[in-house]
Amino acid sequence: MITYELLLLLRIMPKNELASVVKRSANAIFDKGGFLRKLENLGTRDMPYKTSAHGMVHRKASYFLMEFNAPPVYIDQLLDEYSRDVDIVRRRIYKKKEAEAFECTLHEDMLPPPYRKSVQKLIEEARKSDKPRYNYNTGLDYYPFQK
Predict the structure, then answer these.
(1) pLDDT for position 32
(2) Which residue has the higher pLDDT, 130 or 68?
(3) What is the pLDDT of residues 97-124, one digit of tens each?
(4) Which terminus of the chain has fewer Cβ atoms in its 10 Å neighbourhood, N or C?
(5) Residue 7 burial (CB count, 10 A)
(6) Quick one: DSSP state of residue 141?
(7) How would residue 131 be classed by pLDDT, with cut points 50, 70 and 90?
(8) HEC sequence for 80-121
(9) Neighbours of 39 (CB within 10 A)
(10) Which pTM value belongs to this model?
């Protein structure tokens, strides 16, 4: 199954109601055959702009981030179910990308430029390339490239 991230913006409400909304949204994932990997409460914040949802205008929201695995065929059904919930102001599901493996080259990058392998490689390529020179005996009475 694919890993997804669900960002929920919930309307401002007491803590026990907030917990029931999060539980309800998690149970929707469980009902579709998915499972939660991580649940984060990002706190209550001002929204970047006022948002109208379910006949109310919201300027603040409680932010929650859920990381879950679920079959891809149920993602649209989850979004539809969350859009009908009056306690959810906004919802977004993103496909989580795999972290790319990389090799740390800080030690090499801290060296002065002439000692770096990448710079030495560029210098070697410049020396190997034989640049074409303009032949002044071409019969043209002018130099075609500005000097």
Answers:
(1) 92
(2) 68
(3) 888 888 888 888 899 988 998 899 998 8
(4) C
(5) 15
(6) S
(7) low
(8) HHHHHCCCEEEEEEEECCCCCCCCCCHHHHCCCHHHCHHHHH
(9) 14
(10) 0.68
Domain ranges of the chain: 2-95
Residues 65/23, Cβ–Cβ less than 8 Å:
no
- Contact between 67 and 37 under an 8 Å Cβ cutoff? The reply is yes
What's the pLDDT band for 16 if we cut at 50, 70, 90? very high
* 143, two tokens: 């130099």
Superfamily of domain 2-95: Ribosomal protein S6/Translation elongation factor EF1B (3.30.70.60)
CA atoms within 13 A on the CB side of 83: 8
Q: How far apart are CA 84 and CA 64, in angstroms?
A: 18
Helix axes of 75-84 and 15-31: crossing angle, nearest 10 degrees: 150
What does the alpha-carbon distance between residue 102 and residue 8 come to, in Å, rounded to a whole number?
A: 32
CA angle in degrees (0–180, nearest 5) for 48-19-46: 15
